[in-house]
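Quick start: what a row looks like.
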Amino acid sequence: MWTTLGLAFALMLVLEGILPLVAPASWRRMFARVTELNDGQIRFFGLLAVAGGALLFWLQN
């Protein structure tokens, strides 16, 4: 289990690092827009990410 969790974390880091590696200016603009969102909007995106991840996890088992 820990091996799978480690591989998932490594894949997440690779995917998260692609945009700043290939297009740092676009990444900076996107990050600046995210900082302008209010807390409720950020929580909503967090909820979507958690629900989507839980759904994918459930579908795999």
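That is the whole record. DSSP finds three helices and no strands in the chain. The chain has a mean pLDDT of 93.
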